Amino acid sequence: MNSQRSSKSNLKHFEKLLYSAIYKIRNAREGTVMISIILSCTFLAIVSPHFLTEKNIFSTAIGLSSDGILTIGITLVLICGGIDFSLGSVMSLSSITAAVLFRAGANIWLACIIGLSVGLICGLINGFFIGKIGLNPFITTIAVMGIVRGLSYVITEGSPISLFNAPESFFKLGQGSFLGVPIVVLLFILLSLIFDFIARKSDLLRQVFYTGSNENAAILTGINTTKVKICVYLLAAFLASFAGIINMSRFSVATPSIGLGADVSMRGISAAVIGGASLSGGEGTILGGILGVVLLNIINNGLILLNVPVYWQDFINGIILLTAITFDFFSHKRKLNK
Question: Are the C-beta atoms of 125 and 289 separated by less than 8 Å?
Answer without folding.
Answer: no
